[in-house]
Amino acid sequence: TDVVTATAPHPDGDLCATGQVGEPSHVVVWSTLTGDVKRRWTLNAGCRACSCLAFSPDSRYLACAAQDDDHVVYVYDWADGVLAAHAATGAKKVLAMSFSADSTKLVLSGDGSAVRRKDALSGEDTRKARTVFCSGIPEESTIDQANEAFAKHGTVLCVRLRKAGGSKGKLSGDATVEFATVEEAAAGPGA
Q1: What band does 112 get if pLDDT is binned at 50, 70 and 90?
Q2: CB atoms closer than 10 angstroms to residue 97
Q3: Strand ranges across the sheet with 171-179
Q4: DSSP of the chain, one letter per residue?
């Protein structure tokens, strides 16, 4: 389709990536100077659109958040046209993302929750086994405070603070924490 849902300028300024609505959905890298298409990918079956895109600062990678049931994030080595990594991120849409300055990590922000992912995405999905549910967190806690508290138990990849039902922005005191390894999750809070 011609309905663009996401854009990302390339670090050199001469290229741009766009994501589209449709089944199938496409991501296109094109020249801002000539309009020539440099690369095109068709997203997975069941993807309704691309919700956001981000180029890495080193210009090598392009991340794409799919609007499918698992909200998969794809990371392409865009110049070579190959998929470098992908991972399902859960039931909430990914609405914004950015690479770290050294292009090795990807930070995601989700629909209705505060999310911070610190390590690069991996093709192997052990997220459920590495995730711990916690309660009793002070309702006034920030994502940074929660991340700092859980980091005492291991390498924290992601902290999600849950909102109270029916409230606007008030937290419930519950969180899910994703650790880097299954072992850290098993030895983490509440173990």
Answers
A1: low
A2: 23
A3: 131-134, 171-179, 156-163
A4: ---EEEEEE-TTSSEEEEEE-SSS-EEEEEETTT--EEEEEEPPTT---EEEEEE-TTS-EEEEEE-STT-EEEEEETTTTEEEEEEE--SSPEEEEEE-TTSS-EEEEETTBB----S---SS--TTTTEEEE----TT--HHHHHHHHGGGS-EEEEEEEEPTT-SS-EEEEEEEEESSHHHHHHSTT-
Is residue 5 predicted with pLDDT exceeding 70? Answer: yes
For 174, phi and psi rounded to 5 degrees?
Answer: -110, 155
